[in-house]
Amino acid sequence: MTNIYTPQQQRVLLITSLLIIGGFIVVGLSGYVSAFLGAGILYVVFQPWFRALTVKRKWNRSLVTALLIIFSLVVIILPFLTLSLLLIGRIQYYSQHTDDILNLVKKAEDLTGYQITSPQNIRSITQQAASYASKLLPSLAGGALDFIVILGVLFFTLYYMFVQQEDFLKGLRKYLPFKRDTQQELGESLKNNVNANVLGQLLVCLVQGVLTGATLWIFNVPDAPFWGVVAFFMAFVPVLGTPLVWGPAGLIKLSQGDTGEGVGILLVGVIVIINIDNLLRIMLAKRMGDIHPLITLAGIVLGVPIFGILGLVVGPLLLSYFIVLIHVFERENKKQEEEVIKDEERLEQKAEQAIVKKR
């Protein structure tokens, strides 16, 4: 029986069907984007360990993958979840008990002589901060079942990315619309971003969080461990970071008449914590991924509202990919221009040779 569609119509309908079905798949899996992104990030982080154990030591691939999953659960997921729950719980506490914040603002106003904002605005800002933190950070408060499903999808994806690594990489190379050189550049950019914004940033933020918490504890600031956790998360944001924690703490101490403690917090923050941050970033920049701080900052602003806490990595990665593709586009255009010039030169040479032959 003859098909009623022409080959061109069949091709258009095939592409349309793929786009429609693909759209349904993307919409259906949109709630699990964080799981797939997290699996990709952990895949890049654990890739050197996986190769060392499976290639050099000849360990069983499934066993190594299972050990890496257990390691990531115990060392990464559970501690991060605990810190998130601690942070969200305290923010929600302050959002429901705004009197403490209002008293601090009142003392700051008495010290400076300026009215900072109204009590209604402070309550509104505090409640909005609690709501934003609950959405940004993963927690069981958002639903234990959803969290378990996302975690299961993450580890399930990670397992097959390692166990069927050759097929996974072969599929990427086959279906990505880029040349081999471009794919290598994108892979290197992914590796640099993960190293710089996961491993490097995590180390820097951990050091800054510990230093900030210890400083506040030494100078008798209430809830110093909590504010150390806040400093850990804030340290992911370049430039601003921990000064948003120890700066107000020092000013509050000054407003309460504790001049020595207030000055001590500010001095330690400016002399030690900020310089440690700059020193570590410079030391790790070349070793763990040469990513410009502006790309990191702009990427965080771009990625966090869209992807939540994973936007700390995904945002800078998107900007890096955009820059890589621009360079590739520029390079390909340059090659085409050179080829056009060469073709024109060949035509001119042939024309000249034809003229010489006629003579």
Automatic annotation (TrEMBL):
Broad class of the protein's primary localization: membrane
Gene Ontology annotations for the cellular component aspect, listed alphabetically: membrane
Compartments where located: Membrane
Membrane topology: Multi-pass membrane protein
Keywords of the record: Coiled coil, Membrane, Transmembrane, Transmembrane helix
UniProt protein name: AI-2E family transporter
Transmembrane segments annotated in the record for this chain: 12-45, 65-88, 140-162, 198-219, 226-245, 265-284, 296-329
Coiled coil: 326-354
Family according to the record: Belongs to the autoinducer-2 exporter (AI-2E) (TC 2.A.86) family.
